[in-house]
Amino acid sequence: MSKQLFGLYPHCGQQDDLKGLYLTHRVDTLGCTTEPFVYANFLSSLDGRIALEDTGQNIQPYIPKHITTASDFALFMELHAQADCIITHGGYMRALSEKRLGNVLQVKSNKLVEWRCNNGLKPQPAVIIASASLNFTVHASLYEHQQDCFIATGKNANVERIHYWQDQGYRILKAGEEQMVQGEALIQQLKQLQYKSIYLIAGPRMLDTMIREKQLSRLYLTITHQLIGGLDFRTLLTGPPLADEGNMTLKSLYYEPNSPLGSGQFFMHFDLQPTH
Description:
By secondary structure, the protein is of the alpha/beta class.
């Protein structure tokens, strides 16, 4: 039996099933090859933390497990299921190889895989790995599921590393003027690859460049009703103050009480307002 959510906006008071909630958005149909629909999904605490950092010799971000829930993950995967392409990053690939994070490169549910096939998508999305250093290991699951995989980097990335990946058979997408990947340049490359629904699971730096360069179409956000503190943490964005390119319009807001246990959470999504 699916969990019940309380709708707060735009229809206050109605109850909706959590299961299938985001599938009804049909984000897979909202873009085209000339104007792809680019969307992101984040989980945040009430005090604005999306991750804490291990301040040892190698700073490693992690999400405190007590703020995660099965409900949030289920909706994350419904959004995953509607993408023909996901964008991740080299840091995530390193975390996978070191078993510090779980694998979210594939749609896991057989029902969601079936949903994809019934709606004209491949069984699994293509994967874009954005990296400035190009120092990571490609996870074996990408081979196992026969997913298309591309590596995005800047024009001034290390030439030896570029040649290394090309020798391994990967196509390199030059998507930035220096070493870092930039949002607009990357989306231009993905247009050429004919992708229409692009899901960011790449962290705050990628979100930042997508918003600043006016490439993001929609932001999904779960806010857990918990304060987690911490002196070293990460938030949604990384750069200097935004102007009107950061303006958003609330499109939906749902409340799930008592999950996480002892608190609750909001599920919401925003569309980016056009700028002039």
